[in-house]
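ok so I'm stuck.
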Amino acid sequence: MLPQFRIEEHRDGDGALRLAVHGELDLTVAGQLQARLRDLQREGASVRLDLSKLDFIDSSGIRVVTLAALDARRDGWDLEVLRELPPTVRRPFELLGMQAALWPEPQ
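replied:
not stuck anymore, here's the structure
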């Protein structure tokens, strides 16, 4: 059985909304994450995107995450993509050279 895609939401102690994405983020479900992120951006919510529970990400998932990070920087929206990624998710971002889009300042 393949891991079930789901997005869990909860508030961190500082009030930011943490979106923990589980399972596989691919073409069939990327639109769900994109829609949720757009809603939160319109609301002006402070968001932490936690991809540490993903088992897999494809190019459509990478696109959603990267565009959200770039939109946030451009529009002043408070979106943080957490740096903790499993190797199967970190590697595609590295191969595509997308780290600077997600984490513009050095660690």
